[in-house]
Amino acid sequence: MSKRADPALIGAFVLGAIVLSVVTILLVAGDDWFRKRSQHMLYFEGAAHGLQVGAPVVFLGVKVGTVKHIQLGLDESNHKFVVPVTIEVEPHIVRSRDGEQIDLRDRETVRKLVERGLRARLRLQSILTGQLYVDLDFHPGKPARYIATDPAVSEIPTIRAAIQELTSRLEGFPMDRFLADVAASGEALNQTLN
């Protein structure tokens, strides 16, 4: 005849397995589960080809967060498509001269930085792969243009990438007139030399 299993022993075994599983998950996840997460929205004009979820968010050359979501949206004020990008900022990255931590997750801190000229733009991370990253930097000469209509959304204004600015300037360049002027200058130089 077989012995009957002790229910207390089985319960202790199951309880021990559950505790071990929870401890393992907490060790693997680290303090990510208990960390306050803060997300900000960015609205980029034009294509964001090369930007991927998980791309770094860099503030003055230091990685401070990651891209969490990339979507396609419509700016109803001017009927143009925009690319809403959600970024998540890590805590305890920025320190003042006194050693005090500046929390980029705090909406009021970000608002003050935006008033001083904080803007986001897409930059090329790798010329070989064409991957982009989000660059946060100060551009006080660039006006802050907001797209989000919900006051609960923490938005960091964006500016166009350098290549987009160059492209828009070249599109407006009067190439026909320029070539006519070059041809006229060449003709005048030819007549002078003859």
Globally, the shape reads elongated
Give the mean pLDDT.
81
What composes the largest sheet? 7 strands, mixed
Please report the total strand number as a whole number: 9
Helix % is: 25-40%
Pattern of helices and strands: HEEEEEEEHEEHH
N- to C-terminal separation?
122 Å
User: What share of residues are in beta strands?
Assistant: 25-35%
Report the structural category: alpha+beta
Please tally the helical runs, counting DSSP H or I stretches of 4 or more residues.
Answer: 4
CA radius of gyration: 27 Å
**Unreliable segments (pLDDT under 50, ≥5 consecutive)?**
none
Précis, in short:
The protein has 194 residues and is an alpha+beta fold. Helices cover 31% and strands 27% of the residues.
Would you kindly provide a written description of the structure presented here, covering whatever features stand out?
With 194 residues, the protein is α+β, with helices and mostly antiparallel strands. Helices cover 31% and strands 27% of the residues. It has 4 helices and 9 strands. Strands 1, 2, 3, 4, 5, 8 and 9 form a 7-stranded mixed β-sheet that branches. The protein has a two-stranded antiparallel ribbon with strand order 6-7. The radius of gyration is 27 Å and the shape is elongated.
